[in-house]
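Sequence design from tokenized structure. All designs in this work follow the same two-part layout: the structure record, then the generated sequence. An example of the structure record is given first.
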């Protein structure tokens, strides 16, 4: 009803400037069309608008009015033809008026099953309309995502629509729609959990718990830092010294091996004794030479 009142004011404004002087019959015909429109007789109003359009080659704004008549007459295909053609030419109009046309065009595409196009048009209406009218667009966008089998996005849009309804337009006539949204959101919860992921879906990289601890290093992400040379884990020996070898674990020897090792040690023990006698023999030889 609020949208029809706005349109009625706009049509009254246009009726003054559309027809040249002396066209009294056409002016009266436009008055009848407005009366039909106010009485919700959109088809009768549309017939008069079409005849006037053929006679005067009306501008884009007037064509948008015809699109609204098709929309209210449930001829959504014709409505989209008018809106899609003439909406880009209406950028000079007030935002509230343009929001009305974008919403009607989006609703027409929605009824035809063109959900992707409808989402774009509803988003355009959101950018132009008042806060009290945004709930309707979010409500329709939620259903678009629902029919596109994206339950998570649909539930998010329903939540936003409920916020705008509860905050800016909490009227009794919206109770049925809000109950419908609540029912839809309850039904969407199992779909969000159980719906299989698409093949192209990739999970985000898991974040380690330490990443949540913000330190001073986090603020230096754009600065290139040279890493210092860290010492090796095992210390190296000084130059000229041999590195000690690691002792291997000893295994238990058999009695035969012990006897063999003892036999090998006896001649090795005699060698140091012989080495100790050699200096004494040399000393005796030197003394003998001195006597001679």
């Amino acid at each position: 009803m609020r949208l029809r009142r706005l349109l009625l004011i706009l049509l009254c404004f246009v009726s003054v400037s559309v027809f040249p002087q002396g066209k009294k019959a056409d002016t009266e015909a436009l008055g009848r069309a407005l009366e039909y429109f106010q009485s919700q007789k959109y088809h009768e109003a549309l017939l008069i608008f079409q005849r006037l359009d053929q006679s005067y080659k009306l501008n884009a704004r007037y064509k948008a009015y015809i699109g609204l008549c098709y929309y209210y007459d449930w001829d959504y295909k014709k409505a989209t033809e008018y809106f899609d053609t003439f909406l880009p030419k209406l950028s000079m109009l007030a935002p509230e008026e343009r929001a009305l046309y974008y919403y009607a065009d989006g609703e027409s595409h929605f009824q035809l099953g063109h959900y992707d196009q409808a989402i774009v048009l509803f988003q355009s209406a959101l950018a132009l309309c008042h806060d009290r009218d945004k709930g309707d667009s979010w409500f329709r966008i939620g259903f678009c995502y629902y029919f596109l089998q994206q339950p998570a996005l649909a539930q998010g849009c329903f939540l936003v629509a409920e916020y705008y309804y509860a905050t800016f337009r909490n009227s009794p006539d919206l109770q049925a729609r809000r109950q419908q949204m609540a029912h839809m959101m309850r039904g969407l919860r199992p779909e969000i959990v159980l719906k299989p992921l698409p093949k192209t879906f990739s999970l985000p990289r898991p974040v380690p718990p330490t990443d949540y601890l913000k330190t001073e290093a986090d603020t230096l992400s754009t600065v290139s830092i040279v890493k210092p040379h860290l010492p090796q884990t095992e210390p190296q020996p000084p130059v000229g010294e041999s590195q000690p070898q690691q002792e291997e674990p000893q295994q238990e020897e058999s009695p035969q091996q012990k006897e063999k090792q003892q036999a090998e040690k006896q001649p090795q023990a005699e060698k140091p004794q012989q080495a100790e006698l050699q200096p004494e023999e040399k000393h005796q030889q030197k003394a003998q030479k001195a006597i001679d």
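The first helix runs from residue 2 to 18. We note this feature because it recurs in several other targets discussed in the main text.
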